[in-house]
Amino acid sequence: MAMTRTQKAATVDQLVEKLEQTPTIYITNYSGLSVEQATELRSKFREVGVEYKVIKNTMLRLAMERIGGYDEVFDSLNGPTAVAFSEEPSAPGRVIKAYLSASKGELPELKAAHVEGAVYHADALEVLASLKSKDELIGEIISLLQSPITNVVGALQAQGSNIVGAIKTIAEKAEA
Questions:
Q1: DSSP 3-state assignment of 84?
Q2: Given this model, what pLDDT does residue 156 score?
Q3: 94 within 8 A of 127, measured Cβ to Cβ
Q4: Helix (H), strand (E) at residue 88
């Protein structure tokens, strides 16, 4: 049954809201996946907090036009399209890459990705999958910040034991 104009408008409104809330989207071609494969893929996405939906190209394009900034991905809005919505830029890429290697298949195929304003095209799956997650980056920053502090504390402790040793030596010489 065809959607009414009101239903279409509501769908576009929902997509606009979803796009505004989600900094990362991956546009994929899912055509050729069996129902079982598509269900398995959705499950893998769900495990890492990614929402994967089949969306009509015209609805997605209307929502993107309303927000603006998605002009570069319009060329990829053709044929069967499913979109992965994620807070984490690399999560969908990692899932797709792992799924492709496990299934030894070619689907889902990345058409484009829009990550916090940057556009990646179909050949960028390796780059996207290798991006570090926010937690990994925070961990690296914390370890970099802790490193100098650890060095300073170690140096102070070493200097303290050198001073204590020197005072002991001077005290022993004075007694003798």
A1: strand
A2: 55
A3: no
A4: none
The whole-number pLDDT of residue 145 equals: 77
Residue 159 scores a pLDDT above 60: no
Q: pTM for the complete prediction?
A: 0.78
pLDDT digits (tens, 9 = 90+) for 98-153: 999 999 889 999 999 999 999 999 999 999 998 887 788 788 888 777 777 666 56
Please indicate, yes or no, whether residues 89 and 142 belong to a single structural domain of this protein. no
Residue 138 sits in which domain range?
Answer: 132-176
83 within 8 A of 44, measured Cβ to Cβ: no
Find the CATH number of the domain harbouring 16. Answer: 3.30.70.1730
Is residue 90 exposed (0-12), middle (13-18) or buried (19+ Cβ within 10 Å)? buried
Is 60 exceeded by the pLDDT of residue 10? yes
Same-domain pairing of 152 and 123: no
Q: Do 54 and 17 fall within a single domain?
A: yes
- Helix (H) or strand (E) holding 83, with range, is strand 82-86
Question: 115: alpha, beta or left, given left = phi > 0 and alpha = psi -120 to 50?
Answer: beta
118 with 142, same domain? no
10 Å CB burial of residue 37 (0-12, 13-18, 19+) is: middle
Q: Do 146 and 161 fall within a single domain? A: yes
